[in-house]
Amino acid sequence: MDVTGTESGGGPTLLRILLGSQLRQLREARGVTREEAGYTIRASGSKISRMELGRVGFKQRDVADLLTLYGVINTEERDEVLAMVDQANAPAWWQRYGDVLPSWFQAYVGLEASAQLIRCYEVQFIPGLLQTDDYARAVIKLGHCRLPPEEVERRVSLRRERQKILNRSGPVRLWAVLDEAALRRPIGGRDVMRGQMEHLLAVVQTPTTTVQVIPFAAGGHSAAGGAFTILRFADPQMPDVVYTEQLTGALYLDRREDVDRYLEAMERLCVDAFPPARTADMLVRLLKDL
Predict the structure, then answer these.
(1) Which residues neighbour 243 within 8 Å (Cβ) at sequence distance 6 or greater?
(2) Taking 60 as the threshold, does the pLDDT of residue 6 lie above it?
C-alpha cells in the first residue's frame, strides 16, 4: 500500500481526495459494493461515494472498520492510512472565510493551494492570482454591486491570501494565457488599470510565472467556450483537474478524456498566443496608452 499524500505538501483537500481514492481502490479490489461498505459503517452507499470522492470528512472509526472489511490487517499499513485521517480533517486557512466563500469554490481553493502547476486561460479579467487589491476590489463590485464595504474587503483579503502560493517556499508554477481583451477592458478606471499593468510587468519577470497574450489579430481560437483552469499536482496518485466556473457554481473534471481535451486546447492557445518573451513589451505599450 502506498499512501504518499502527506509527502507532497498537499493540504487537507488533496489529502481527502487521495484518502478517498485509496479507499475506493481497496474496496474495488475486494469486490465490495458501496452499499455493503456503507452498511459496515452504519451509512449509505451514497455516503461511501462522497467519501471516495473526498467531498466529506472522515472518522477514524469508519476508516478503521472499512480497512478491516477490505482485508487490510497489517498494523503498519493500517496506521499509515489512519494517520492521514487527522491530517485530511485538519482545518484549512480558508475556512475562516466561510462567510464569503461559496461552498462550490472551497474545493478549488484547496486544490489551488495543493497544486504544483496551474495553467489558466482568461477572457474577461486578469486571473485572480495576479490581481492587485484595487483591481480585485473593482471586479468584486462588478459581480456583487450590493455588497457592504466590509464584505468586499473580506473578499479582497481572501484573494490576497490565495496569492501567497506564488511566493511561498516551493511556489506553485503559474502559466496564464490571457485574451487581449482582459488587458484592455478598463476595470476600475485608469489608475487601477495602471497599477494592475505595473504589477503584471513585475510578475512576468519572476521565474515561476509565465504570462502569454492572445492578440485580437489571432481571430477565433481553440478555447471559444470560455475561461478554464487546469491544476496539476506533485503526487502521482492525483489526476489533473480541470475547473470551469459559472455564476452560481463550478464544474470539476478529472476524467482522462475530458482533461486531455482541455490540455489540447491549452497547447493550441499557447501556440496562438504571443510568445512569453513578448509579454513585457506589450504591457509597456499598454501602460503608455493609459
Answers:
(1) 108, 111, 228, 229, 230, 231, 250, 251, 252, 253
(2) no
